[in-house]
């Protein structure tokens, strides 16, 4: 079982299981891919990430190594008929990753659903959507880890298997029943019920103390998912979550207080420094300016304020609604005269880059005006798109006489989107300010990423990161503005965002430089070098429990 790096000071194997290992869906991918280096520095190649294998080559940044665990893989595949790939996850630390084709385990699903009912009273009868897929993957992961340990004669040791989110909760329950030498850690990054309450436009915070998780799960038709999550939280040797905000949610809705909060850190090693930072910022700003000019059809001033927001298309949860309202207030403020270009980088159901915009960008002498001057990629069923519809209702048409222009970028920015052809991070560095006015945000990587790039940001106290920065409202002059948000102060939040934008726009270059330094200093305190200790403490709790 020789690996790239020798084990560093511990005989304990640590398995990290998630649907997002080498498979980018959301924020958990960022958690795992950025934590890897700090955990690998401690555990070496005894740290193993376990994720799903996709035969069509959908796994991100994974390099297979045919020599890694080759004897075990051959034995496992022969015995169980399961395709397994071992290799390196090409992120900082380059940890080992084991990817499993979990589809053969569907044959065992019905038996395991009965076992979950018999042992943990989890009713799967009315489950739908991705429930069966998630339960099957969790089961496949746990059984694969079990086989790995037994084949390599690790069963007499004490090893840790950490499972992330309800989508792997079935793995925790399998270990509880079948693998007593594995000490389990279960981490919920956002409760199924909390997210569902918000998605259904119910008031999470007004009635928080009166919500019953089991009752709401039945009402919102997520009972099976909720019960897997709840039972995993109760039966893991250590239960963790990512913020004090979500810890309260777990205590109320899962009826289980986390053993420890493990906040999400950030690996800043890929952020350019010194002259490289200055160059990258200049290139990013030039790209943003070029796209804006070609889209809106006129020159953008060199001192224009560039504002951005991004994240998943969760219109209310991510605060996109109140963000657009704040930009509307800015646009109708007759005293605000600075040209402002707003980039809404929220991936949607797009059908590719706009061909007319591409043609115009390829021909610098083109004089024609585009039909829609606020959209970079074509959207399926655009007339029914909520975000774009709000932009139309607010008259964000980007006419030449309007100083606030809003541009929707409904595409994943992976460097190959057809318009910017730069990654999100490569564009983020060129912004002057970001805004993430979240209503429901267990942690909130987007504002943390922003300040890591020395870009001041506005967030709320309903984001775990915002609460970590300060439990009191603070202004943008501190690098991060944390706005107090609740169920009823929508327009107050919009006004406070507006006021912070105006304050930043009026800063002198000296004041702006100081604000950027404060933003970066906050990010420096959120590195995995600082936060990995909470994971290590969780491991200790798990090892001591059973």
Structure in words:
This protein is of the alpha/beta class. Helices cover 42% and strands 14% of the residues. The protein contains 19 helices and 17 strands. Strands 3-4-5-2-1-6-7-8-9 form a nine-stranded mixed β-sheet, with helices on both faces. A hairpin with a 6-residue loop joins strand 4 and strand 5. Helix 5 packs across helix 8. It is globular.
Structural category is alpha/beta
Largest sheet, spatial ordering of strands:
3-4-5-2-1-6-7-8-9
Mean pLDDT across the residues is 93
Helix amount: 40-55%
Low-confidence stretches: 1-9
Summarize the structure.
The chain contains 19 helices and 17 strands.
Secondary-structure map with pairings?
Blueprint: E1 14-17, H1 27-43, E2 47-52, E3 62-64, H2 70-80, E4 84-89, E5 96-100, H3 109-120, H4 131-151, E6 159-164, H5 169-178, E7 182-188, H6 192-199, H7 213-219, H8 223-235, E8 238-241, H9 244-254, E9 260-261, H10 274-296, E10 305-310, H11 320-331, E11 340-345, E12 350-353, H12 355-362, E13 377-379, H13 386-393, E14 404-408, H14 424-428, E15 433-435, H15 445-452, E16 457-460, H16 464-469, E17 480-483, H17 490-505, H18 509-524, H19 528-545
Parallel strand pairs: 1-2, 1-6, 2-5, 6-7, 7-8, 8-9, 10-11, 10-15, 11-14, 15-16, 16-17
Antiparallel strand pairs: 3-4, 4-5, 12-13
Helix pairs in contact: 4-5, 5-8, 7-8, 11-17, 15-18
